[in-house]
């Protein structure tokens, strides 16, 4: 039986067409685009977050770019529909709202297949973007460094590669000549795919070069290995505000998701004269699009070098527990846990949290990781945080004195690469060099194996 033209498009019925268009999904030259937000509430699908928190986060994502949010609603999804993700009744209601309120953009907080996206666009009359596309749009606007721009473009192209939707017909395939040439539509598809793949290959090569340069820069920093303190946390937890408060820097800070995408590094001398390096990283987010995971992890590589991790939490957010778990999951995948490196939990925004929220958070805290409650905006308890940072660094390393005769001078590079050399001077007989070096706990076994015979007892 033949299918009617009004039925949904499916992968089996249609051919392929390249989703052409600018790198931005939204026209930035025009006035704010009128948008409608839909947050699907999928029955029987476990989720750490309440539906209200998920809707609020999605609204925050949309607010991070030039959109006029006209409607935001939650729709119940008992079963995901292969054609449109949400049910037909919901689609009809959305289409009516789109027409009545002249909505130009429909955003869904889920990952849509190319066919679902296209069907929704046909039935609602609005341009449709899913969560992945929205986050790509934000990253495209925020990325500032060369590596960040390249990573976003690469993720964008990989996303577009998956948006190859089907358009050529049964008759066009019949008109094709040789089997390996295919019809006219298929020829264009292959050309588009080649162009996409060539650009992806080029970007990958450029990124490899940038990564090598960054690796060399990280090695150079180890020559003067001041302790690295990395700030991590869910997006909009206040990391950049805290970073500025701790370092006197002016990293971009804003009450929006993904205000910071690129790692910022600043040095500071602590009250007890110890010099450290603070590193502000991109914010985490739940359900990060697959195409951005590589970019995200690349930016977070700095955390793997940290001597101390400050996990910044927005303690005023009702969903702070779920956010913290998302952050911990990603860090665990990177091999960064309290067992590997010292952690301090920084409960930020206490000026916005109620006493009830703070009491509940304290009661729920089961980890052995120490906690400092602060407000990066008002500066409340920042001195307590700095004191804890100094105390933690002091506990995780010991000052050793090593005397190396000139014939063993080549061993000194290990001290600079794995410890913090605080002083060096010639011995009394001037036949050796004395090094005072701070060795982290996790490097002590290697230190003793390499320098046991040269350690000065004190």
UniProtKB/TrEMBL annotation:
<dbReference type="GO" id="GO:0046872">
    <property type="term" value="F:metal ion binding"/>
</dbReference>
<dbReference type="InterPro" id="IPR045498">
    <property type="entry name" value="HflX_C"/>
</dbReference>
<comment type="similarity">
    <text>Belongs to the TRAFAC class OBG-HflX-like GTPase superfamily. HflX GTPase family.</text>
</comment>
<dbReference type="GO" id="GO:0005525">
    <property type="term" value="F:GTP binding"/>
</dbReference>
<keyword id="KW-0460">Magnesium</keyword>
<dbReference type="InterPro" id="IPR005225">
    <property type="entry name" value="Small_GTP-bd"/>
</dbReference>
<feature type="coiled-coil region">
    <location>
        <begin position="186"/>
        <end position="213"/>
    </location>
</feature>
<keyword id="KW-0175">Coiled coil</keyword>
<dbReference type="InterPro" id="IPR032305">
    <property type="entry name" value="GTP-bd_M"/>
</dbReference>
<dbReference type="Pfam" id="PF13167">
    <property type="entry name" value="GTP-bdg_N"/>
</dbReference>
<dbReference type="GO" id="GO:0003924">
    <property type="term" value="F:GTPase activity"/>
</dbReference>
<dbReference type="InterPro" id="IPR027417">
    <property type="entry name" value="P-loop_NTPase"/>
</dbReference>
<dbReference type="InterPro" id="IPR025121">
    <property type="entry name" value="GTPase_HflX_N"/>
</dbReference>
<keyword id="KW-0547">Nucleotide-binding</keyword>
<feature type="domain" description="Hflx-type G">
    <location>
        <begin position="227"/>
        <end position="397"/>
    </location>
</feature>
<feature type="binding site">
    <location>
        <begin position="280"/>
        <end position="283"/>
    </location>
    <ligand>
        <name>GTP</name>
    </ligand>
</feature>
<feature type="binding site">
    <location>
        <position position="240"/>
    </location>
    <ligand>
        <name>Mg(2+)</name>
    </ligand>
</feature>
<keyword id="KW-0479">Metal-binding</keyword>
<comment type="subunit">
    <text>Monomer. Associates with the 50S ribosomal subunit.</text>
</comment>
<keyword id="KW-0963">Cytoplasm</keyword>
<dbReference type="Pfam" id="PF16360">
    <property type="entry name" value="GTP-bdg_M"/>
</dbReference>
<dbReference type="Pfam" id="PF19275">
    <property type="entry name" value="HflX_C"/>
</dbReference>
<keyword id="KW-0342">GTP-binding</keyword>
<dbReference type="InterPro" id="IPR006073">
    <property type="entry name" value="GTP-bd"/>
</dbReference>
<dbReference type="Pfam" id="PF01926">
    <property type="entry name" value="MMR_HSR1"/>
</dbReference>
<feature type="binding site">
    <location>
        <begin position="348"/>
        <end position="351"/>
    </location>
    <ligand>
        <name>GTP</name>
    </ligand>
</feature>
<dbReference type="InterPro" id="IPR016496">
    <property type="entry name" value="GTPase_HflX"/>
</dbReference>
<dbReference type="GO" id="GO:0043022">
    <property type="term" value="F:ribosome binding"/>
</dbReference>
<comment type="function">
    <text>GTPase that associates with the 50S ribosomal subunit and may have a role during protein synthesis or ribosome biogenesis.</text>
</comment>
<dbReference type="GO" id="GO:0005737">
    <property type="term" value="C:cytoplasm"/>
</dbReference>
<dbReference type="InterPro" id="IPR030394">
    <property type="entry name" value="G_HFLX_dom"/>
</dbReference>
<feature type="binding site">
    <location>
        <position position="260"/>
    </location>
    <ligand>
        <name>Mg(2+)</name>
    </ligand>
</feature>
<feature type="binding site">
    <location>
        <begin position="258"/>
        <end position="262"/>
    </location>
    <ligand>
        <name>GTP</name>
    </ligand>
</feature>
<feature type="binding site">
    <location>
        <begin position="233"/>
        <end position="240"/>
    </location>
    <ligand>
        <name>GTP</name>
    </ligand>
</feature>
<protein>
    <recommendedName>
        <fullName>GTPase HflX</fullName>
    </recommendedName>
</protein>
<dbReference type="InterPro" id="IPR042108">
    <property type="entry name" value="GTPase_HflX_N_sf"/>
</dbReference>
């Amino acid at each position: 039986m033949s299918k009617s033209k009004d039925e949904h498009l499916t992968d089996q019925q249609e051919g392929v067409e390249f989703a052409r268009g600018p790198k931005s999904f939204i026209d930035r030259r025009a006035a704010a685009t009128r948008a409608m937000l839909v947050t699907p509430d999928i029955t029987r699908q476990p989720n750490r977050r309440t539906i209200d928190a998920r809707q609020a986060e999605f609204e925050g994502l949309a607010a991070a770019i030039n959109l006029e949010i006209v409607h935001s609603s939650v729709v119940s999804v008992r079963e995901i529909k292969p054609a449109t993700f949400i049910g037909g009744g919901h689609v009809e209601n959305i289409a009516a709202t789109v027409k009545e309120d002249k909505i130009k953009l429909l955003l869904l907080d889920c990952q849509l297949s190319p066919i679902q996206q296209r069907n929704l666009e046909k039935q609602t009359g609005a341009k449709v973007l899913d969560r992945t596309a929205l986050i790509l749009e934000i990253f495209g606007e925020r990325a500032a460094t060369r590596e960040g721009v390249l990573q976003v473009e690469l993720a964008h192209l990989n996303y577009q590669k998956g948006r190859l939707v089907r358009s050529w017909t049964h008759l066009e395939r019949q008109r094709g000549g040789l089997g390996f040439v295919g019809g006219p539509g298929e020829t264009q598809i292959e050309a588009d795919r080649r162009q996409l793949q060539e650009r992806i290959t080029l970007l990958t090569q450029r990124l490899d070069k940038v990564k090598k340069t960054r690796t060399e820069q990280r090695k150079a920093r180890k020559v003067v290995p001041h302790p690295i303190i990395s700030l991590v946390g869910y997006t909009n937890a206040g990391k950049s505000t805290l970073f500025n408060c701790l370092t006197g820097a002016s990293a971009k800070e804003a009450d929006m998701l993904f205000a910071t995408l690129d790692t910022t590094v600043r040095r500071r001398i602590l009250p007890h004269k110890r010099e450290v390096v603070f590193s502000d990283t991109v914010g985490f987010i739940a359900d990060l699009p697959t195409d951005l995971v590589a970019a995200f992890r690349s930016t977070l590589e700095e955390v793997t070098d940290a001597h101390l991790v400050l996990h910044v939490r927005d303690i005023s957010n009702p969903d702070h527990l779920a956010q913290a778990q998302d952050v911990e999951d990603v860090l665990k995948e990177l091999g960064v846990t309290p067992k590997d490196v010292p952690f301090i939990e920084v409960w930020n925004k206490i000026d916005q949290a109620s006493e009830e929220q703070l009491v509940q958070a304290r009661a729920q805290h089961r980890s052995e990781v120490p906690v400092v409650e602060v407000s990066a905006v008002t500066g409340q308890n920042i001195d307590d945080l700095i004191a804890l940072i100094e105390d933690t660094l002091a506990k995780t390393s010991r000052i050793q004195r090593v005397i190396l005769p000139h014939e063993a001078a080549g061993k000194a590079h290990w001290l600079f690469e794995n410890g913090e050399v605080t002083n060096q001077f010639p011995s009394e007989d001037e036949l050796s060099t004395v090094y005072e070096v701070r060795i982290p706990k996790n490097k002590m076994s290697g230190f003793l194996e390499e320098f046991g015979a040269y350690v000065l007892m004190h």
